[in-house]
């Protein structure tokens, strides 16, 4: 299983970016999906999660500014980010997990850098 994240870049405070994550397997084989980020010197944190039932949960600091979604037809997930702040600067990762033959498996994308700076 491979995940390919893209869409990061340099943006000014208040700007927007849309991250995409292409997934190499059918979405029907996936349990949960998530976007994580890791800022320099900090631990990786969960930004948004999409459950198998379609529910979406967000980190408190991004609520109302970040919007996670999935497209089953395209085997992809997205993170729309608006009103970006310097504190959002980090490497963003997509992750999916699945239950396969009774085992829990998770897969990570390679990360895409988001820099919010004037």
In short:
The chain has no helices and eleven strands.
Structural class: mainly beta
The radius of gyration over CA amounts to 14 Å
Describe the global form: elongated
Mean pLDDT, all residues? 94
Low-confidence stretches: none
- SSE sequence, one letter per element: EEEEEEEEEEE
- Which percent band covers the strand fraction? over 45%
State the end-to-end distance.
Answer: 37 Å
What's the helical proportion of residues?
under 10%
Q: How many β strands by DSSP?
A: 11
Tally the helices: what do you get? 0
Largest β sheet strand count, sense and barrel closure? 7 strands, mixed
Main traits of this protein?
118 residues, mainly beta, 0% helix
Notes on the protein architecture:
This protein has 118 residues and is mainly β. It is built from no helices and eleven strands. It has strands spanning 3-6, 9-11, 17-23, 33-38, 45-50, 56-58, 66-71, 76-81, 90-100, 103-108, 112-116. The strands form two sheets. Strands 2, 4, 5, 6, 9, 10 and 11 form a seven-stranded mixed sheet that branches. A hairpin with a 6-residue loop joins strand 4 (33-38) and strand 5 (45-50). The chain is elongated and about 50 Å long. The model has no long low-confidence stretch (mean pLDDT 94).
Q: What is the secondary structure topology, with strand pairs?
A:
Elements lengths: L2 E4 L2 E3 L5 E7 L9 E6 L6 E6 L5 E3 L7 E6 L4 E6 L8 E11 L2 E6 L3 E5 L2
Parallel strand pairs: 2-11
Antiparallel strand pairs: 1-3, 3-8, 4-5, 4-9, 5-6, 7-8, 9-10, 9-11
């Amino acid at each position: 299983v491979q995940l390919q994240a893209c869409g990061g870049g340099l943006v000014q405070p208040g700007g927007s970016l849309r991250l995409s994550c292409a997934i190499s397997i059918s979405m029907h084989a996936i349990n949960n999906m998530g976007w994580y980020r890791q800022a320099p010197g900090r631990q990786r944190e969960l930004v948004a999660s999409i459950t198998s039932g379609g529910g979406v949960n967000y980190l408190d600091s991004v609520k109302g500014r970040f919007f996670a979604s999935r497209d089953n037809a395209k085997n992809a997930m997205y993170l729309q980010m608006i009103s970006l702040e310097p504190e959002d600067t980090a490497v963003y990762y997509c992750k999916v997990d699945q239950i396969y033959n009774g085992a829990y498996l998770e897969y990570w994308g390679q990360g895409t850098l988001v820099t919010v700076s004037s």
